[in-house]
User: Fold this.
Amino acid sequence: MAEARNMLEKHEKTAVDPVRHVRIAIVGSGFAGLGMAMRLKKDGVEDFVLFERADGLGGVWRDNSYPNCACDVESHLYSFSFEQNPNWSRAFSPQGEILAYLQKCARDYGLEPHLRFRHDVQEARWDGDARRWHIRTAGGNYTADIFIAAAGALSDPKMPRFAGLESFEGTSFHSARWNHDCKLQGKNVAVIGTGASAVQFIPALQKQAARLSVFQRTAPWVMPRHDRAFSAIERTAFRSFGLVQQMKRGGIYAFRELLATSFLYPKLSGVMQGMAERFLKREVKDPVLRKKLTPNYSIGCKRILLSDEYLNTLTQSNVDVVTENIREISAKGIVTADGKEHAADVIIFGTGFQVQELPMLALIYGKRGRSLRETWQHTMTAHLGTTVVDFPNFFILQGPNTGLGHTSVITMIESQFTYVLDALHHMRDRELAVFEPRQEAQDAFVAEVDAKMKKTVWTNGGCESWYFDRSGRISTLWPGFTFTFRKRLERFRPEEYRLSAGGAR
Assistant:
């Protein structure tokens, strides 16, 4: 945080004009926003800004600081291919190291002058006459030729609406907004949710709490993580021989792409599910508890969780796994549908994020005066998951149907970086001012995605998940390998767009 404050102090010394024009405005300073800025820098582009609502960069890796917070993709793959880090301490990097990596990237690429902290975007509206975006932020007003949304899907916590929550006399908070002042030692702690964050922090809580109640709505499939620290020899090899690190990254990438076959071709998932079942049986000896923890859907239908500790933690004497539905929150704890009150001094919500209802979508208005939220009121659609009909000169990174269930999402956003740059080159070389995807191009891409999705485990695995939107469509995931996505986005195809001339810079 000290580094973030230093960056902030630098920028606060610079006066912000009432209305400043920039060529490119980027929203978000996580992996997507910073990576896009880094690629612009490498391309020689200097006229851009990054709007960040917080007082420091990092996105999800700034906001999530819960105990044991780490990535569930190996470090050498969960990093930019064009900016490798030879100094990872572990196979799966902890949150602090990932945040430090992003801060170093910002320094090394000279992004500090481009960052605008505490510039929460309050509205972005396309002006068809001026052919530019008007952007109102908490730190000033801007216009931009190109607007890039890079806030990410895991930026706003999802809080369930339980009756009586306001009457709870203890402390409650979401895992993405961890209350580090709250002491858990010797307390009765309740955790609602058993998702990717919860499986990381629950083992740490078990060691502190007098009693830990884990409220599970749906059992997740859990696989061993096989995390370990890198030896001094390995770290030296990574630093001294770039090829060693490239081979490490390549091996991880190839293995994880192979895993995708279990999602794309459900008949091949038996091997993976058998491994998960054996892991559960080895870690949980009690048949009653094991039954509670056995999912009733095919592996991969929901997100597969990785942990070497989680299942064993649930077998400890001070842990209860509660599968009854929650009826309400009382002053002293949580009341389940069977009428039982589970005492709690602290309630921690591990209930995920507003993936389908990102607040930012309501703030971005296209050429017809409709917001992205209104445009996507039934389902989220975008051409190549990156550009949107009726939203000229607009890119969205990690947009619809670009999420993954098997590997690093950075492999996807790097494909989008390439696409954005090629589009900008095309505009510059042909002196174009405006681009917008054709409806038929977007419809064809969405139809292709939906057809492929029908064959996957996500639609045939027997579960409901946050992958589905209100229309019953999976608008979050990419139903293919990452190299097929990269192939689709390797170049900008002008025939798929409506293009207008006008001397774009």
